[in-house]
Amino acid sequence: MSADTPASLYLDPQIRDWVLFPITLVMILVGVLRHYVVVLLQSPPKKLSRAGIREQRALLRSQILRATSSKSPIPPAHYKALSRHLSDAFKAGEYLKDGPPNGDATSSAANALTDPATMDGMMAGMKTQMVMMIPQMIIMGWINFFFQGFVLIKLPFPLTFGFKSMLQRSIEAPDMDVRWVSSLSWYFLNLFGLNGLYRLFLGGDNSADSSRDMTMSPFASAGTAQSGQPQDFAKLFKAERDNLELSEGQYAWAGEELDVKVLRKYGRLLPRLD
Questions:
Q1: Do residues 62 and 229 touch, judged by C-beta distance below 8 A?
Q2: Could you tell me the pTM of the whole model?
Q3: Neighbouring C-beta atoms of residue 195, cutoff 10 Å
């Protein structure tokens, strides 16, 4: 055997039975368990009040009116009346759930941290992150304490030397073949490699995905859009008023000269030359 050829290793089958399989099985079971724990910790979405639903529906109705302005099914007189009514109502704050704003009142969205729904979402996000991070820390400590320095498996495909630091953590053997995987590196491979298995059994939107733990903060879920997340509808209505004025210039009635179009389609009138 030449000096450049790495020495062959023969692993004890008990390493496979008592180290490799237990680490993999524990990580799978912990991922499934924390998925169901997160599901149990999630609180049901709070129902909106009647005024809050009216506030959202008014904005949605205005958006639909604008989206269909180029080929609107509403006649011109009715379209202008509806557009002016919504614009005046937005200006007066009639659709705001808290009533028309006062001049010295502060925005509810500016004080989002004082809103109970926002605080509940922030606490739920912190609980979820604790459920996700603590089991991984315990598993890593368990592997480091009991199986530090173990060589578990040899990958069946060749790799470059750049993978050595990733696959052979906690092993100081510069002459070892890069395809050998240590116990700690096997933990990290399972940490990111089991996500496909979780998606297969638990669905795409599961809480067992460990790759998100490295990038998410405890307050990340509180910043996402939720049903109880407060929004500044006063500013949204103000922007919607400007959009309604712009859409009036693009308005075109879909029923314009409808009778002429039908007669021309069935050959009762000569087609236009232009």
A1: no
A2: 0.57
A3: 17
